[in-house]
Amino acid sequence: MIFRFRRTALLHDDPCNPGRRYRLTPLLPCLVIGPTGRLLRQLLLDTGSAASLLPMSVASSLGIKRFSSPGSVTGVGGNRAIPIMVRNAEVLLRIQHGLEVCQWKAVVGFTAAPLRVEGILGISGGLEYFHTTLDVFANQIILIPRVTLPVVADPP
Questions:
Q1: What would the DSSP string read from start to end of 16-59?
Q2: How many domains is the chain built from?
Q3: Beta strand spans in 46-121 (E)
Q4: Does residue 154 belong to any structural domain of this protein?
Q5: Per-residue pLDDT tens over the stretch 24-42
Q6: Is 155 within the bounds of a domain?
Q7: For residue 104, which phi and psi values (nearest 5 degrees)?
Q8: How many CA atoms lie within 13 A of 108 on its CB side?
């Protein structure tokens, strides 16, 4: 699957590119499916993130009431020193490009901490199942599913 980087508007000129008021950001449209709901989110593809994260408000919208063991993660957002608390839960994630569809079970962390994005697709629960290439020159995100992708059908 090949996706284009998205333009993210900036309030001021990009210091790395004077005169430009946007950044190219690797955002992926991802359908998050829970026990009683579905939400389309633009997830930041983050090859440096150990975990996939979503806001706690998404958990309630999806009808998630049971969480596995809580934990903490560091390095999220602008403050790398202070860990944020997460509560983990299983969801289905689906990315689609044209007729190509990948849907799998994933354990993601839900947090009440503010995120600068709608969610993060990190290694655990996400990128571990794909050969991932960020081709900034061609403005492309290339995801090739691995044979380890735990494919699942739509819930009834």
A1: TBTT--EEEE-EEEEEEE-SS-EEEEEEEE-TT-SB-EEEHHHH
A2: 1
A3: 53-55, 70-73, 84-97, 100-111, 120-121
A4: no
A5: 889 999 999 999 999 999 9
A6: no
A7: -150, 160
A8: 27
- Domain assignment of residue 150, yes or no: no
Which residues, in sequence order, are bridge partners of residue 1? none
Q: Which domain holds residue 27?
A: 2-72+83-145
CATH number, domain with residue 127: 2.40.70.10
Give the span between the Cα atoms of 105 and 133, in whole angstroms.
Answer: 22
For the segment 47-70, what is each residue's pLDDT rounded down to a tens digit? 888 889 999 999 989 999 888 876
Does the CA dihedral 95-143-83-113 come out positive or negative? negative
Q: Is the dihedral of CA 86, 94, 145, 27 positive or negative?
A: negative
Q: What is the pTM of this model?
A: 0.83
In a domain, 96, yes or no: yes
Look at phi and psi of residue 69 and say left if phi exceeds 0, alpha if psi is from -120 to 50, else beta. Answer: beta
